[in-house]
From TrEMBL:
GO MF term (any one): DNA binding
Organism per entry: Bacillus salacetis
Record function comment: Required for the transposition of the insertion element.
Protein name: Mutator family transposase
Keyword terms: DNA recombination, DNA-binding, Transposable element, Transposition
Domain of life, source organism: Bacteria
Residue ranges crossing the lipid bilayer per the database entry: none
GO biological process, one term: DNA transposition
Length: 391
């Protein structure tokens, strides 16, 4: 090893040692102040006093602090806010483990990272216990009351590999809503089984039980039976079939040499200024492509009303309504976190990662509105009033 490398190592060790010593002093100072406050606020007539110290090893995000002096009182009532009883980790360490897990870092990899930080590895059981505290949060989140009104509900599913004796794909149902003010919110997610209209029906009924009553529009793809399931749950709502899915399916049936031209022609339908203009554009396409793609264009003609429902809504918000892009963008991010793990050991492991990500998105979205909803506020209010009655 060169002299420079040796000096760097020595300097690094010195800095680490100094940092831990400073941290130890600061933590012990806080503990002293805490017990002073506890004893100072003792009720009149109650007798309590200090009772020495006990040694404690504490894991922090800066490394492991050895022989920390934790003060005691004679009644044994003192408890610091810095860490929980019988735990040797500060809350910040648990939060670090959870955030690593949220980003799709597997249990083994988390253990290695913690070893590099603390000088000692965390067992898979310890890491699972730390992330397991999230499960209670998930149950509360999945049962939280929801708002009464949503302009649109977006339904979409992604798939994740889960081990149940053997590895198989499980559906993750996700529901994203847009409030009348333009805030996005993930209303719920549900993991397990294969995607089906029956599965969606249970989820939609759960949304109603949690307070969702008035919905203007449901936006989703063409899964068989899904439209009927949605309208049973929200009979006064309308359905918007995802135009992007329809275009994609049409192009998949087209010859490669025609795909670019056909894609441009299809845009004249859903980028039209009105339903009538879109109908005229479809007639032109049928005339142009009738010999080559007669069946595909007949499918467009049959589905046109449900593909162009968005034309009934204010122009300022139409770009958000004709496609499931909003929820697909979210799903891509969630899928990215899950993809780093080849397969997950159980449903709960998938739920933890998904929850940590969607709750983070909800926190961020609560501070931002989609553009256009402010301008369309009165029109949206009128649509709710006409369909559900004035409040």
């Amino acid at each position: 090893m060169s002299n420079n490398n040796t000096k760097n190592l020595n300097l690094s060790s010195l800095l680490e040692s100094t940092m831990k010593e400073v941290l130890k002093e600061k933590v012990e100072f806080i503990l002293q102040e805490e017990i002073k406050e506890v004893l100072k606020n003792e009720p009149v007539g109650e007798k309590n006093s200090r009772n020495g110290y006990y040694p404690r090893t504490l894991d922090t995000v800066y490394g492991r602090v050895e022989d920390l002096d934790v003060p005691r009182d004679r009644k044994g009532e003192f408890q610091t806010e810095l860490f929980e009883p019988y735990k040797r980790r500060m809350v910040a360490v648990d939060e670090l483990v959870i955030q690593l897990y949220r980003h799709g870092v597997g249990v083994r990899q988390v253990g290695k990272i913690m070893k590099s930080l603390l000088g000692d590895s965390y067992s898979q059981g310890t890491i699972s216990n730390v992330t397991g505290t999230v499960l209670q949060d998930i149950r509360e989140w999945q049962n939280r009351p929801l708002k009464k009104r949503y302009c649109a509900l977006y339904l979409d599913a992604l798939f994740v590999k889960v081990r149940r004796d053997t590895v198989g794909k499980e559906a993750v149902y996700i529901v994203l809503g847009i409030t009348p003010e333009g805030h996005r919110e993930v209303l719920g997610f549900y993991v397990g089984g294969r995607e089906s209209s029956n599965g969606w029906s249970e989820i939609l009924n759960n949304l109603r039980e949690r307070g969702v009553e008035e919905v203007l529009l449901g936006v989703f793809d063409g899964l068989s039976g899904l439209e009927d399931a949605f309208l049973r749950a929200f009979p006064k709502a309308e359905v918007q079939r995802c135009v992007v899915h329809k275009v994609r399916n049409t192009l998949n049936n087209a010859r490669k040499k025609h795909q670019t031209e056909l894609a441009q022609d299809l845009k004249t339908i859903y980028r039209a200024n009105s339903f009538e203009e879109a109908q005229a554009a479809l007639l032109e396409l049928k005339d142009k492509w009738k010999k080559t793609y007669k069946r595909e264009l007949e499918s467009w003609e049959n589905d046109l009303p449900v593909l162009l429902t968005f034309f009934k809504y204010p122009t300022d918000v139409q770009p958000y309504l004709y496609t499931t892009n909003l929820i697909e963008r979210l799903n891509r991010e969630v899928r990215k976190r899950l993809k780093t793990m080849d397969s997950l050991p159980n449903i709960e492991a998938a739920e933890k990662i998904i929850y940590l990500n969607v709750s983070d998105y909800n926190d961020r979205w609560a501070r931002r509105k989609l553009s256009g909803f402010g301008l369309a506020k009165e029109e949206i209010q009128d649509m709710f009033d006409n369909r559900y009655g004035k409040k």
